[in-house]
Specification:
By secondary structure, this protein is of the alpha+beta class. The protein has a single domain, classed as Roll (Nuclear Transport Factor 2, Chain: A), CATH 3.10.450.50. The protein has 6 helices and 5 strands, in the order ααααααβββββ. α4 crosses α5.
């Protein structure tokens, strides 16, 4: 009888270990797709949810002192939002392109997601990797242009 209970206990333990964990992270590509949708719909609220504007600006202001960054970031934050909404240049460029979200690579709390922009008129392709970090249960995009190359 003891063997039977040990067998049942071991079986239950193996079953519980084989169950998927609840802490599994979402696919970072979903956050990139939601960002693309937010840009397409000119949705400022969703943009702020999926895009870390301050970190994006820190990346763009690399080389400037921290004092200058702290002064410029609040001033430039609105400009980034305007570029990604309404008649902003980035939004218009994205709307004139077919966007293909490719593979992602996750290393710890960081990820990159490949995105290819294919211009609908000229057919030219631009390839980029968006940088993301994982915090508070979701992926946030902090870099729209980790690397770019024309294909």
């Amino acid at each position: 009888m003891k063997r039977f209970f040990k067998f049942i206990g071991l079986s239950i333990l193996i079953f519980l270990i084989s169950l998927p964990t609840c802490s599994k992270r979402p696919d970072p590509r979903k956050s990139v797709k939601k960002l693309i949708t937010a840009v397409d719909q000119s949705d400022t609220t969703a943009l702020k949810e999926y895009l870390d504007l301050d970190e994006l600006l820190r990346e763009r202001l690399e080389g400037f002192s921290e004092e200058v960054k702290e002064e410029l970031i609040p001033k430039l934050r609105q400009g980034i939002l305007e570029d990604l909404t309404g008649d902003g240049l980035t939004r218009m460029s994205w709307k004139n392109s077919l966007l293909v979200v490719g593979k992602s690579e996750v290393i710890g709390d960081s990820a990159t997601v490949e995105v290819t922009f294919i211009n609908k008129l000229s057919g030219t392709k631009d390839y980029t990797k968006m940088g993301l970090y994982f915090k508070d249960g979701k992926w946030k995009i902090y870099n729209l242009r980790v690397e770019e190359m024309r294909l």
